[in-house]
Amino acid sequence: MSSNIPSLDDLAPKTQEFYTKALKTLQGAGIPFLVGGAYGFEHYTGIARHTKDLDIFVRAGDRDRVFEAFAATGWRTEILELLQNHGLIMTNPGLN
Fold first, then answer.
1. Backbone dihedral region for residue 87 (phi beyond 0: left; psi -120 to 50: alpha; all else: beta)
2. pLDDT in tens, 55-76
């Protein structure tokens, strides 16, 4: 019987590397964060579904620190104008 349950092996190595680097960057900068979305859901329910993003929540007061930490990795960050009031920050290695 084959399993349809996704595992980390289903993620491309570059995606795994990016997600890990993002979390370690925030940890290294001492910025508290919460992982939400599909990965937070999996942690609490055991139900896995891989999406094409990593949802990280930070305090509004830490926004500039997040920009600085990600900039130090060489990533460019941006706030989507449409969602600016909700504090959505987008970053990925392709935005350099």
1. left
2. 888 888 898 899 899 989 998 8
